[in-house]
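Narrative of accomplishments. A recurring question from our advisory board has been how the design workflow behaves on a single, concrete structure rather than in aggregate. To address it, we present the structure tokens for one chain from the evaluation set, followed by the sequence designed for it. No filtering or post-editing was applied between the two.
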């Protein structure tokens, strides 16, 4: 596999996009939208029984829909519907994915948006090729590798120092240029309207705001936007983000240079270098090193996907800098060596835990940004390496955790073990969307600003939060760790946008948020669907557990429903469970693992768009032509 094929963005191209005559005409049209909206308050009370966004009854937002002609699944009803409209109007999967992602930046501003980054996986039905865009944030050029020294993780979370150079907007541009049929200007329009007219605040949005209240209140711009009148927006009120509408409108009219080369870049660099905290001792908000030049120099990477075969299917994912593709792939390759079935669910889940524990040991030891570390991507994806790892697994008994990373040279059951690497911290943030169009093209796109609420810093007057993605680097670094902080490096991710082909046609599109649990969630959904006899909606809704090579032989973190359903089946294998979240975890979302959005395309063309029925307040799966 050739890793980095080429870089995408070029300053010349960006310059050519600016201020055309068409742009001026569009500016007038788009400006009219903003003028129609009130310019002051961010939230207003909702009229009883009405759709706050458009003054009409809100149509139902099903978590699952079945039909033909194209499908979209995401965590949010407005975003899925905006993607669906693009498909209905003749756009393809890439067009719809960018439109959906832009809408998620409005309605899920704590999980995604133009202040962050992500990974875009695209299947082109005409050529049969899968391509990926790595839009991961990067460490600024002037950032010293000692920049985290003396700071705690919690201090870095709400700081300028953890902000990576954002890649989301460049990803959208590259996706449309390479795979799409519509302009960025066109696909941003629904989100400009959405940000202008507002959306209905639900319990998830209010709870996420409350979970972040302490640190949001430290940053005046963030407090003004997300804590109007000193409180999180009430459930049922309308949340408007006129600053974001203006920012998106400028980008729509004048191109991505407006962000990467204009005054927005200056504003980003300014707040990163001076986070403008109020000086509380609990929020020192260490300054960052980003300059406007870092933004001008940002480039997405277009690279080959990861690939493994599993039960006769072709599974494609994201190569490093994400660990998603290699770790999902290695887990499946290990499971390929075992028979799994719903008749013996206890042993199947035991093997699932052992496979992901071993794959995580290898991820932690070997995966980082391949531009800086020697990442053995081919070996981690090879069936021979997985066979050697499978030899170490007892089909009847859990191994003591953590298990050691594998010897990369091992090809048989004599595999020797290397040193144990530390596990990493987890979050509940990020968002994923899946799209399939009428032609069979598909997109799996996971995007994030890292923690829920990112760095907590809103770019003044621009309406979006900046990421804190650089906390995904190892905080303390040993000599062999491939994920040490370095200038210009991308931090290792767990995001796992995944496309599964069957005989060259798309069969499943899957992904989820959830930090490192993303990897186990994607593996578990595929296992549920392919091996354990569940339908796709059942596979998405099923209770989850996430074994990531736990320290000190601790029990596997699991949702309460998983413990209730499977603890007795797993006990004979010495597999023990502990509930995720707990009394000290913030908010109501802490007991959940992930928030998946998936699509299945049956051999006869029937599409099943399956989002979460419950987690994160439930997502929305929609299709162009619903089946009876
Ligand atoms: N920053 C994480 C990653 O790239 C995702 C954040 C989350 O989902 O908590 O893997």
């Amino acid at each position: 596999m050739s890793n980095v094929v080429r870089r995408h963005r070029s300053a010349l191209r960006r310059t050519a996009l600016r201020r055309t005559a068409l742009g001026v005409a569009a500016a007038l049209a788009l400006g009219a939208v903003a003028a129609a909206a009130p310019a002051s308050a961010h939230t207003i009370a909702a009229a009883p029984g009405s759709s706050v966004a458009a003054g009409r009854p809100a149509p139902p937002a099903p978590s699952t829909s079945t039909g033909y002609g194209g499908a979209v699944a995401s965590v949010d009803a407005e975003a899925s519907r905006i993607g669906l409209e693009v498909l209905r109007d003749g756009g393809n999967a890439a067009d719809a994915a960018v439109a959906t992602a832009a809408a998620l930046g409005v309605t899920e501003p704590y999980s995604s948006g133009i202040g962050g980054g992500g990974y875009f996986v695209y299947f082109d039905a005409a050529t049969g090729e899968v391509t990926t865009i790595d839009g991961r944030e990067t460490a600024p050029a002037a950032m010293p590798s000692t920049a985290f020294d003396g700071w705690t993780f919690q201090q870095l979370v709400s700081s300028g120092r953890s902000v990576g150079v954002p890649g989301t907007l460049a990803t959208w541009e590259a996706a449309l240029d390479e795979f799409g049929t519509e302009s960025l200007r066109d696909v941003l329009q629904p989100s400009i309207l959405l940000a202008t007219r507002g959306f209905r605040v639900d319990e998830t949005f209010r709870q996420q705001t409350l979970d972040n209240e302490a640190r949001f209140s430290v940053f005046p711009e963030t407090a003004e936007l997300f804590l109007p009148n000193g409180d999180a927006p009430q459930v049922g009120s309308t949340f408007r983000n006129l600053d974001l509408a203006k920012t998106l409108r400028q980008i729509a009219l004048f191109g991505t240079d407006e962000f990467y080369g204009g005054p927005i870049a200056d504003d980003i660099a300014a707040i990163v270098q001076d986070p403008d905290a109020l000086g509380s001792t609990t929020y020192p908000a260490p300054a960052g090193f980003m300059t406007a030049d870092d933004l001008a120099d940002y480039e997405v990477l277009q690279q080959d996907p990861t690939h493994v075969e599993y039960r006769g299917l072709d599974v494609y994912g994201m190569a490093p800098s994400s660990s998603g593709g290699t770790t999902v792939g290695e887990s499946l390759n290990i499971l390929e060596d075992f028979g799994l079935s719903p008749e013996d669910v206890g042993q199947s889940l035991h093997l699932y835990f052992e496979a992901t524990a071993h794959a995580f040991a290898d991820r932690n030891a070997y995966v980082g940004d391949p531009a800086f570390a020697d990442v053995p991507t081919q070996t981690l994806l090879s069936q021979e390496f997985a066979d050697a790892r499978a030899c170490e697994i007892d089909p009847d008994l859990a191994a003591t955790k953590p298990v050691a990373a594998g010897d990369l040279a091992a090809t048989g059951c004599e595999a020797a073990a290397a040193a144990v690497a530390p596990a990493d911290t987890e979050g509940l943030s990020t968002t994923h969307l899946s799209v399939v169009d009428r032609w069979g093209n598909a997109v799996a796109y996971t995007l994030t600003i890292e923690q829920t609420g990112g760095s907590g810093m809103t770019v003044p007057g621009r309406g979006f939060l900046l990421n804190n993605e650089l906390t995904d680097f190892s905080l303390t670094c040993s000599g062999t760790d491939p994920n040490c902080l370095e200038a210009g490096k991308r931090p290792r991710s767990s995001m796992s946008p995944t496309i599964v082909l069957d005989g060259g046609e798309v069969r499943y599109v899957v992904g989820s948020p959830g930090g490192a649990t993303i990897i186990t969630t994607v593996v578990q959904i595929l296992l549920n669907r392919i091996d354990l006899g569940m339908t796709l909606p059942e596979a998405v809704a099923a209770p989850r557990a996430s074994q990531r090579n736990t320290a000190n032989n601790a029990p596997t973190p699991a949702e309460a429903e998983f413990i209730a359903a499977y603890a007795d089946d797993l006990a004979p294998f010495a597999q023990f469970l502990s509930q995720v979240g707990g009394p000290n975890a913030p908010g109501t979302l802490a007991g959940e693992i992930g928030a998946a959005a998936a699509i299945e395309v049956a051999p006869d063309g029937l599409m099943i768009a399956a989002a979460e029925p419950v987690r994160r307040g439930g997502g929305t799966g929609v299709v162009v032509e619903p089946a009876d």
